[in-house]
Design goal:
The structure holds 2 protein chains of 2 kinds.
Chain A: H1 3-17, H2 21-43, H3 46-62, H4 73-90, H5 98-103, H6 116-135, H7 138-149, H8 154-161, H9 165-190
Chain B: H1 5-12, H2 17-28, H3 31-48, H4 60-73, H5 76-84, H6 95-105, E1 109-118, H7 132-148, H8 172-181, E2 189-190, E3 213-220, H9 222-227, H10 229-236, E4 240-251, E5 254-263, H11 265-276, E6 283-290, H12 293-302, H13 312-315, E7 334-347
Parallel strand pairs in B: 1-7, 5-7
Antiparallel strand pairs in B: 1-3, 2-6, 3-6, 4-5
Classes of the chains: A mainly alpha, B alpha/beta.
């Protein structure tokens, strides 16, 4: 996150704490899609991800006074979101089939310039990746999504997941190895080359 | 000895230059390590190739509304359980105490007053709710505003005739249950204010058992605080004060003070009508219905919302009416700082139980 962005976030936070709730609305608008894109990969369902994002943003607002600006607002928001998501996931079984994943609306092949065949292939590839992701443990899925999809550094991941950086390091490697195995397993059965 | 775990750090650029050089030297002489590195790289590439998902909607308004609702209702169940469900003698404490404290600290500051009206045991023989005069004032004000076309094209405020109130049931348990659900989409809170078109309410057949809660937001200026407008309004309707909840919570920079009172249905409706009819005093009125059609009926009768800058002339939907206060631009100075009061009116049955 850039210096400018952090400064801008802090300004909006100060305004929100002074009673300008619309400033917090700007923060919501700024981060909701990024957060959603990460959460949807962790929980696997768009509707659940939407609820989690909204609940996280509400909780962040209610806890805003406790944010000390010692880290990026987005990291702090992520931490709240992952706590909400983990609580949510404990009440739900992970998806276990490509078809179910597809039916859940996780894939959005629209907006590409591919033809129907390429689109179908891309859809299938995405389905396999997300199925493999869904088969990981929550811990591995979270660390992998934060690193590979959201591009967080190790320190930020450690803060979001509330674990030491060393744990992030080892957990991320194990997650990659497991993901590799799952992709190979799915690929062998469905003739997809990763 | 180099662990293959370091390959992930190498991929992620998390190694120091010296360590990175060591890994590259190792990779140069180890084909298996190179293959693993490429497989790990492929995993990352596959994940990054996933389509970027977007919400497709602006959550800011929903988030702020949900946060407001959470703030306002946070302490309600416990209070209902300890206070409303176990009646205690009225301990009237003047609102001026609250206002005086606020006035000292928040001169020219706005307070947001929130009223949650708990409908309970409203018997069939109960008189029609609300003073007729008050309702007429409210309707007249709404009608004036609608005629003026204020608030944008196609937008009009709710106008609905009041029918004699149907019998209602106890609602506290429903409120508790609703809060436990916790999810907005499962919680039938309806921000029906600024209603356009009018709510699709069905008033017949009369409901034998129903319940509801009204959550009413409005802002009060420091002047209003000093004038003790709410105090006078409650006194004028003979509403008994049960207690002032001393706890002051703070969230999002907003202080919240809870005040609980008891009122008969007609008293509660009368207060609501009076509030609706005085937009110059009680601004930014926002009435929501929680749980139950009867509450929605009241919202349909009195509910409206005013948005925009908090100046009296811009904020009031009935600013041209006789109840609108004079323009006082100075009131806008510190409008951002707010104090919310959770004002719970326990509506009692006809026998006062």
């Amino acid at each position: 996150m850039s210096e400018l962005a952090v400064t801008d976030d802090e300004r909006l936070i100060r305004q929100a704490l002074a009673g300008h709730s619309e400033s917090y609305g700007q923060l919501v608008l700024k981060y909701q899609d990024r957060l959603f894109n990460t959460v949807v990969q962790v929980v696997g369902h768009a509707e659940d991800a939407r609820d989690i994002v909204q609940e996280s943003l509400v909780q962040a607002f209610l806890k805003l006074e406790s944010f000390r600006c010692e880290s990026a607002f987005f990291t702090w928001l992520y931490r709240i979101a992952f706590n909400v998501a983990m609580c949510h996931q404990r009440r739900r079984r992970p998806s276990d089939s490509v078809e179910r994943l597809r039916e859940s609306g996780r894939f959005d092949p629209t907006g590409t310039e591919d033809g129907p065949a390429e689109n179908l292939e891309r859809l299938e590839r995405c389905a396999q990746v997300q199925l493999a992701l869904a088969r990981l443990s929550e811990e591995h899925r979270a660390v992998l999504v934060l690193r590979e999809i959201d591009g967080c550094c190790y320190d930020a991941i450690a803060e979001v997941l509330n674990v030491p950086v060393g744990t992030v390091r080892s957990r991320l490697h194990r997650a990659r190895l497991q993901m590799k195995q799952e992709l190979q397993r799915i690929g062998e059965g469905e003739s997809c080359d990763f | 000895v180099i662990s293959d775990e370091i390959l992930s750090e190498y991929l992620d650029g998390e190694l120091s230059p010296r360590r990175r050089a060591e890994v590259e030297k190792w990779l140069a002489g180890d084909a298996a390590a190179r293959q693993l590195l490429e497989e790990l790289r492929s995993v990352g590439g596959a994940l990054r190739a996933l389509p970027h998902r977007k919400l497709g909607e602006d959550l800011s308004r929903k988030v702020l509304q949900a946060a407001d609702r959470r703030i306002l209702l946070e302490g309600l169940p416990g209070e209902l359980a300890s206070g409303l469900l176990r009646p205690t003698p009225s301990t009237r404490r003047p609102f001026r105490r609250l206002m005086g404290r606020r006035a000292l600290a928040w001169l020219a500051v706005t307070a947001a007053v929130v009223a949650a009206i708990l409908m309970a045991d409203w018997r069939a023989q109960q008189a029609p709710m609300g003073g007729k005069g008050d309702r007429q004032v409210a309707r007249d004000g709404v009608a004036r505003d609608a005629e003026k076309g204020r608030g944008g094209e196609g937008e009009h405020l709710v106008q609905k005739a009041v029918r004699p109130s149907p019998p209602l049931g106890l609602s506290a348990s429903s409120l508790l249950a609703a809060r436990e659900k916790g999810r907005e989409r499962e919680n039938p809170v309806q921000s029906v204010v600024r209603a356009s078109p009018p709510l699709p309410l069905s008033l017949s057949p009369p409901l034998a058992l129903a319940d509801g809660v009204l959550v009413i937001h409005f802002d009060v200026t420091a002047e209003t605080s000093r004038d003790k407008s709410l105090d006078k309004l409650l006194d004028g309707h003979g509403i008994a004060w049960r207690c002032e909840h001393e706890q002051t919570r703070s969230a999002g920079g907003t202080e919240i003070v809870s005040v609980y009172v008891e009122a008969l249905p007609a008293q509660a409706a009368g207060v609501l009508a009076a509030i609706s009819a005085q937009p110059g005093v009680f601004r930014s009125l926002d009435i929501s219905a929680l749980l139950g059609q009867p509450a929605q009926e009241i919202v349909a009768e009195y509910g409206h919302r005013i948005e925009g800058p908090p100046s009296p002339e811009l904020h009031s939907p009935m600013s041209a009416g006789p109840s609108a206060g004079p323009s006082q631009p100075s009131r806008q100075t510190n409008y951002a700082a707010r104090q919310r009061v959770l004002f719970v009116v326990h509506v009692l049955g006809a026998s006062g139980d």
